[in-house]
Amino acid sequence: MGALPYKTNGNFIKTGALPAKRNFTSCVMRRSSLFVIKEHDYLRKLNFYYIDLKYIRDLSNADDNVMSISPQRGKENRPFVGVVVLLNGRHYCIPLTSPKPKFQNKKSQVDFIKIFDDSKKNEDGTSKLIGVLNINNMIPVIDSVIQKVDLTIHKNDAVEIKNHKELMQKQLKWCRDHADTIENRANKVYDLVTNKPDKNRNLVKRSSKFAELEKIADKFLKK
C-alpha cells in the first residue's frame, strides 16, 4: 500500500520508490461532446492513466515518434502515462512529461501545451512550469491497455512518492481546468496531420503516424 504502481513487460507492478531520474509521461481521459459513444467510468472526467508497455512497444516499433521504452536506452521500466481524449471516434492518449529546462522559454503551440502551477512563482513573477503535453506524440488506446493512476496519498508513502503524487495532482487539476483547450488542440492536430499533410509537413514529421497506429490498436483489440 502507498506505493506508486507502474507497468513493465505488459503487467502492472508496484514499487516503493520511483526510479532515479525517470521522466514520467501522463494521460487524461475526457468524454467528448462531438461523438456519441458508450458511457464508461473513465469518461466522466479527466484522469491519469498508465498505458501497457507491451502495447507501447508494438506502437514504437512501427513509429519512431512514439515515446521510447527501449531497454537499449535504459527506459524499459519507464511508466507511460497520459491524458486521453476522443478523436475521430477513438480514444487517444496525450503524453504528459516532466518539465525540463529547455521547455522554460519554449512557447506553447498547437501540438505543445505547457502546464503551470499558479500558486508558485519564478523570480520574474511567472508561474512555475510543472509539465508539458506533447500532443504531436499522442497515440490511440483501447480499454484493455489502460489503468487509472491512484494518486491517493497514504501515511506510509515515502517522501519521494508523496511529492510525486502531489505533483501529479497539480498537473491533473490543470488538465481538468483546461480540458476544452486540450481537446480542441488534439482535434486540430489530428485533422492537420491526417487531412492536410501537404500543408503541414513540419507538424507531420514530428507527429505520430495516427493512421498506422490505429491499425495496430485494432489488431490489439482482437487479441
Mean pLDDT: 78
Query: What is the top-level CATH class?
Result: Alpha Beta
Q: If classified by CATH, what would the architecture be?
A: Roll
* CATH topology (fold) name: Thiol Ester Dehydrase, Chain A
Oligomer: single chain
Unreliable stretches, pLDDT < 50, 5 or more residues? 1-26, 29-43
Biggest pleated sheet = 7 strands, antiparallel
Percent range of helical residues:
25-40%
Topology, element by element:
Blueprint lengths: L3 E5 L2 E5 L33 E3 L1 H10 L18 E7 L2 E8 L14 E10 L5 E8 L4 E3 L4 E3 L10 H19 L1 H17 L5 H6 L3 H12 L2
Antiparallel strand pairs: 1-2, 3-4, 3-9, 4-5, 5-7, 5-8, 6-7
Helix pairs in contact: 1-5
Brief write-up:
Helices cover 29% and strands 23% of the residues.
Structural overview:
- The chain has helices spanning 53-62, 159-177, 179-195, 201-206, 210-221; strands at residues 4-8, 11-15, 49-51, 81-87, 90-97, 112-121, 127-134, 139-141, 146-148.
- With 223 residues, the chain is α+β, with helices and mostly antiparallel strands.
- It has a single domain, classed as Thiol Ester Dehydrase, Chain A, CATH 3.10.129.130.
- The strands form two sheets. Strands 3, 4, 5, 6, 7, 8 and 9 form a seven-stranded antiparallel β-sheet that branches. Strands 1-2 form a two-stranded antiparallel sheet.
- Helix 1 (53-62) packs across helix 5.
